Amino acid sequence: MLYKDMRLKILLPFFWTFAAVVSTAAQNQAGSICQTVPDKYVIKGRIIAPGVKWDSYVEVLQLNESRLVGYGYTNGTGEYTLPEQEPGRYFIVVRIDGFKEYRDRVEVDGCDRFYDHFIYMEAEDEPIRPLVLDFTGEVKEVVDVAELKRQLPKGVVDEFERARGDRLHGEPDVARRRLEKLLIHQPDFYDARNVLGSVYLEMKRFRDAEAQYNKARELRPNSAAPLVSLGSLYVQEAEESIHPDAGIAGTIVPGDNLGLILDDARSILELAVKVKPDASFAYYLLGVAHMRGENYPKAEQNLRKALELEAHLRWARIALADIYMKQNKWSEAAAEFDAYLEQFKKVSNRGEVEEARKKVVARMASVPK
User: Fold this and answer.
1) pTM over the 0.85 mark
2) Between β-strands 119-120 and 42-48, what pairing exists: parallel, antiparallel or unpaired?
3) pLDDT for the residue 301
């Protein structure tokens, strides 16, 4: 009995101290006892989304009811930090292709200026994979070989023709070497500049392609072809920045620079359609650039113009369907896929389009009427 009493006397001070610590922590957490109360709070955390490449920089939105009050981007490990805001109730929203939209309400107050909020993304039941767009078209300028031979030595023109043949036969590196050597001795050879730029673009050497197209533009400032090619380059570079491949030489993996690349694309393509108002491919590229910038009305307007000028520009149909899917306009997306399948019966991607259409129709059926 004496032993138990002594043990109780030893333990009681510990229990009282522990209870006081717990009580103080609870009061601090509730905000009733703070040495200083922050005027503003920062929400930070990490997004958990299996399979996502975090170098694509996911946007995190902070809303007060329906009003956007702040946003931030993930870093290379999925962590994010939002701008500081006054205490209150906010919604955190994240959208990632292939995952259901995340929307959760948080209430920030208390003693700690930083509020940790982890986000767990849930995969879509049947995600519709975006169909690959095409950026290889350009305003075709007829290369008059007879005229070239009147302007340049026959050997130069013959070497240029060999390079074009190498490119068409799937030997871009051979074509590149021929054209690079040719332009050392013939720096004002406009057609060679254009073709070399296209070879670089196919190799995803964006900065080298940009240099060649700009030199071609200097040689013929009234031609739309180098402008459309530059626009195609910037749009393709933006696509690569959204879904980067490993080991691409000369690629900017932008994050914040994505908006700058899209601005370059839009400005150069607007100039192209001023120079050549019937440049259907320029309108198509403008539509894609506006789509990536989430200006869907402007994107649709330019894609419709592209189809008005060139009804067989099938990739504009794919881009329109993509726009409608991004806005959950399932019936409009299905209509574009139907038009595509009706008009182009023997295209290589027909099976992919049919599969996407099936998923769109299933989404239509699941929407309450």
Assistant:
1) no
2) parallel
3) 97
Domains of the chain: which residue ranges?
42-120, 145-366
Instruction: Give residue-wise pLDDT tens across range 49-78.
Output: 887 877 667 889 998 876 888 888 898 889
CA-wise closest residue to 212 among 228, 232, 190: 190
> CA-to-CA distance for 222 and 23, rounded, in angstroms?
78
Concatenated DSSP letters of 329-350: -HHHHHHHHHHHHHH-TT-TTH
Which own/partner pairs from 121-127 qualify as long-range (CB within 8 Å, at least 24 positions apart)? Answer: 121/47, 121/48, 121/49, 121/52, 121/94, 121/96, 123/50, 123/98, 123/99, 124/98, 124/99, 124/100, 126/359, 126/362, 127/97, 127/98, 127/99
Residue type, 137: G
At 212-248, the pLDDT tens digits run 999 999 999 999 999 999 999 999 988 877 665 433 3
Tokens (6 digits) for 163: 């390079």
According to DSSP, the β-strands at 79-81 and 42-48 are: antiparallel
DSSP 60: E
Measured in whole angstroms, the distance separating CA 252 from the mean position of its chain's CA atoms is 12
CATH number for the 145-366 domain, one of 3.40.50.720, 3.30.420.40, 1.25.40.10, 3.55.40.20? 1.25.40.10
Question: Measured between alpha carbons, how far is 233 from 336 in angstroms, rounded to an integer?
Answer: 26
Which superfamily does CATH assign the domain made up of 42-120 to? Answer: Immunoglobulins (2.60.40.10)
Rounded to an integer, what distance in angstroms lies between the CA atom of residue 359 and that of residue 345? 20
- Mean of the per-residue pLDDT values for the chain? 83
Residues 6+ apart with CB under 8 A from 308: none
Q: Among candidates 141, 173, 174, 179, which has minimal Cα distance to 157? A: 179
DSSP state of 257: G
- Counts for the chain of helices (H) and strands (E), in that order: 13, 8
The per-residue pLDDT for 64 is 85
